[in-house]
Design brief:
The structure is a single chain. The chain has 17 helices and no strands. The longest helix has about 35 residues.
Length: about 475
């Protein structure tokens, strides 16, 4: 490779001499190790995003109001799931450390007690979500032509929340062990079930009833149930599997076991709170622009989710490899794996950005042929193209910080950038500046650049490698 590329991508060029603590893997070994964990994780996250996008495409046949109705439920749903996402950050980080330490008993204690917490909390939150669905969606900005369909869709989704929460917990633990193939297989099957029942229930095909938006929600719940069953099957009691369910770990709480999970999870929870508040306000601003703008936003968000999922999968690999390296007391390898995943993301980002620039209009037309939606959506995809490299890098660096337990810092970044800057700048660019939907998406670029700068500096300093879990 050329001198410039070698300096950027070679294993022996990524660390300063004073950072090295032992023998480093070759460049080939480095990217092979990262790829073995990253590839299933990338396939996993891409599949999840593709199903979300296909949901939008299938629902789009019902019109702009139906697209908007499904889109308006996303942030309220994510607010409810935020508790479990935060807990899973702690589960992944601690299990990765225990895997690096070869402490199988400790890893299974963490898993069992986390599952108990997930089960209790998920039932409570799903009931509250179903009861208060309508006022929650009205507060989110649902318009009169979408509120009825959105309420039905959201209430049905709440049935599957316990299944989703428990599956997320198990997948988080498996990823901490580096078992990203298990999560991939679970999501592949669950998403296939979702797509099949979307086809059967949205339009009423092959003799099934035509349930429209409600059918899409029911299909999602069926997929959640299948995913839960497969997740439990992955924990069957075999000596070949590092993780397994043990009844005494489900029933007895050990403070020393739970403490590091709760410590990391609480900070991650604060981060999730600021993220969800920021995103909630952001969606509320966009929803107030009207149904057409909300439908366009939902289409572009689906495309962004698919693009981001590539780097989100790399983030999963970076957190797992970094956490395991820290468990082996090799902070140099933790840094090295994080940088390797970020280097891979640069290549992926370049491909995605080029695709959005040259084929953006055709991508939007796959969802809708309404010219106003196509025109607006194409402009938004240009913004996404410019933002992609920064978003990818910040995702991977932030995943390493969380994997190391530095969740207080990522929470602070979320508060500043997502909780404050994004909704404030979105409002300014959307209304006083008259930028409308395009102005709102410009705030997305600013948010990602700020986060990239803050987490990049923190990653480079290396203090996240010194935290005890």
């Amino acid at each position: 490779m050329g001198a410039g590329l070698r300096k950027l991508y070679a294993a022996d060029e990524m660390l300063r001499p004073d950072q090295r603590q032992g023998e480093l893997p070759s460049t080939r070994e480095l990217y092979r190790d990262a790829g073995e964990i990253a590839l299933p994780a990338v396939i996993d996250t891409v599949l999840v995003a593709m199903v979300s996008m296909m949901d939008t495409m299938m629902v789009s046949s019902l019109g702009a109001a139906a697209i908007a109705a499904v889109g308006i439920t996303n942030q309220p749903k994510m607010i409810i799931l935020a508790t479990f996402m935060a807990l899973n950050v702690g589960v992944t980080a601690v299990v990765a450390r225990r895997r690096g330490q070869e402490d199988r008993e400790g890893a299974n204690k963490v898993l069992g007690q986390s599952l108990s917490l997930c089960a209790i909390l998920s039932v409570i939150l799903s009931v509250l979500g179903a009861v208060y669905a309508r006022p929650l969606l009205l507060f989110a900005g649902a318009q009169a032509d979408m509120i009825e369909a959105a309420t039905v869709y959201f209430q049905i989704l709440m049935i599957g929340i316990p299944c989703s929460a428990i599956t997320l917990c198990i997948n988080g633990a498996q990823r901490g062990c580096g078992n990203t193939r298990i999560s991939m297989k679970i999501n592949l099957t669950a998403n296939a079930v979702n797509i099949v029942f979307n086809y059967l229930l949205i339009g009423g095909n092959l003799g099934f009833p035509r349930l429209e938006v409600a059918g899409a929600a029911i299909a999602t719940v069926f997929g959640n149930v299948v995913g839960l069953l497969m997740a439990f099957y992955s924990l069957r009691g075999s000596h070949e599997h590092f993780l397994r369910i043990e009844l005494h770990n489900l029933l007895r709480i050990d403070r020393r076991t739970v403490a590091p999970v709760v410590s990391v999870g609480l900070s991650a929870g604060v981060e999730q709170v600021f993220m969800r508040i920021g995103f909630f306000l952001y969606i509320k601003i966009i929803a107030s622009l009207g149904t057409t703008e909300m439908a366009t936003h939902n289409i572009c968000q689906s495309v962004l989710n698919l693009a981001f999922s590539f780097c989100d999968g790399l983030g999963v690999a970076a957190a797992s490899l970094s956490g395991q390296s820290l468990g082996r007391k090799r902070s140099d390898l933790a840094i090295l794996y994080g940088k390797a995943c970020q280097r891979i993301s640069l290549v992926i980002s370049a491909i995605l950005a080029s695709t959005f620039i040259f084929f953006g209009r055709y991508i939007i037309m796959a969802f809708s042929t309404e010219e106003v939606i196509v025109h607006l959506g194409t402009q938004v995809l240009m913004i996404i193209a410019v933002t992609t490299p920064f978003q990818a890098a910040q995702c991977i660096f932030a995943s390493c910080l969380r994997g190391g337990g530095d969740t207080r810092y990522t929470a602070m970044v979320a508060m500043i950038s997502i909780g404050i800057f994004r909704p404030l700048i979105a409002w300014l660019l959307c209304y006083p500046a008259g930028g409308g939907l395009v102005g709102a998406w410009c705030s997305y670029f600013i948010d990602q650049f700020v986060r990239f700068s803050l987490v990049g500096i923190r990653f480079a300093k290396g203090r996240w490698c010194q935290m005890k879990l």
